[in-house]
């Protein structure tokens, strides 16, 4: 079973459990030759990699005993995925062993993830050829599901035809399971056709459940990782670390460099410590290959760890955009990804932990930014300010201001992404007249501000629910900024300094429940867990029965039972589609306190 732990849009940190073994994603499965596992398997253990992939066709062809457990043979207790010979067929032509035989063999040797014999789609295949292969792959998947109880990898094919990729994904998903490698992309990777790979990944994801584990077969170059994982890939595999080493190619963050082209010094790496450039060049071929391959594997794993951290910090868009500028074809791929706005937007929150850093026009095309501009930008000529916060420097507090995001109401000048961004030529001024915000005439402005933010966040003005004169504001003594919104002496909303949006409490959850029709801002849970949720337990996806279509990750929501009785309130980790499709893991962080 697969569960979501952290996320940044489509990118996610997850945990896949197969039997007693676990795999933390995103991750790489290094390709290990089953009859030549060392020294690479020792490096895998040293680098604490959770899984590997090896080839069952090579094992079978080499007369490997069916009754011998693969984990014992390799002395590896992590997850082992086995390929089925499809790539060998792609490289060398027809192979003798059929789908049933390969499935039974993989199952018998204790493979954790068993791969069916899919039909590889070549770049130059016609639509008819691709469709035939896709349908054959589907039939083989159905056959595998009937003859094996193992955890199956069901590859998605479809060549370069977008509609066939979606169709193949839908067909393979109908078989069951949750692990879907995306096949046929190695030839594209070899030709640097990264934009086509991104298109294939996203088309495939459109046809899969959001809870599916997506594996990009053979897409293991570190410089492509930020974009791959931003597009929602969970697992990659690669033998590039050793293949490049055989050609004296060293992996770095911008691609690879040939050893013979290095004139100054080796890239920083624990595997190059104590070795001079001249010494490495003079080594015997096998010795030099092993050192470079170990570095390549280390660097690959290091980049995986870097991407995970960027996901945790909700900074992957910044990182991927920055890294895409290291190669023109990566930038082309990033631009292709941005064309999938309608799909990606549903997985994007209204704000993130990290600010927006402008690196080029593509920044304004990010789904979160594009959605904000489409919703909040207004026409007209307004004063341009390059100092932040804008409202502290403008004399007319109810006007709009020209920003890099368009002409935006001044009421949103502290709301994400307006305040939490940095563009060339912008400056944040600290020497402003704070006293201005504490004058009585600004009280009305601040009340209008909270009404505007409430409408932006929830779709209806606060003053449509509570008269303005019944609203009080609790403000910071140091800055004059709004901290809490009160009515009748009771706090109903807290304005987060981090993103300029409201956190709700029990009082405001009642307001939402009473003033917004079902199913607005609601998540409906199974009756059997309502008592636990009332006590403050988090809400898990398997107990969710329905939700508002408009919910996005990070939204403030109210939690109700199937009779629309208010149970609790919290902040979402998932959108509606994910809530209904994941069968494991937390979907809502419950913030109700048991004493409430």
Summarize the structure in words.
With 596 residues, the chain is α/β, with parallel strands linked by helices. The chain folds into 4 domains: 2-238, Queuine tRNA-ribosyltransferase-like (TIM Barrel, Alpha-Beta Barrel); 355-428, Archaeosine Trna-guanine Transglycosylase, Chain: A, domain 2 (Alpha-Beta Complex); 434-504, ArcTGT, C2 domain (Nuclear Transport Factor 2, Chain: A), CATH 3.10.450; 507-590, Archaeosine Trna-guanine Transglycosylase, Chain: A, domain 4. It is 35% helix and 21% strand. It is built from 21 helices and 29 strands. It has a 6-stranded mixed beta sheet with strand order 25-29-28-27-24-26. It has a 4-stranded parallel beta sheet with strand order 4-11-10-9, covered by helices on one side. A 4-stranded parallel beta sheet has the order 5-6-7-8. The radius of gyration is 27 Å and the shape is globular. The two termini are 34 Å apart. 45% of the residues are buried.
Gist of the model:
This protein has 596 residues and is an alpha/beta fold.
Features:
596 residues; alpha/beta; TIM Barrel; Archaeosine Trna-guanine Transglycosylase, Chain: A, domain 2; Nuclear Transport Factor 2, Chain: A; six-stranded mixed β-sheet; 21 helices; 35% helix
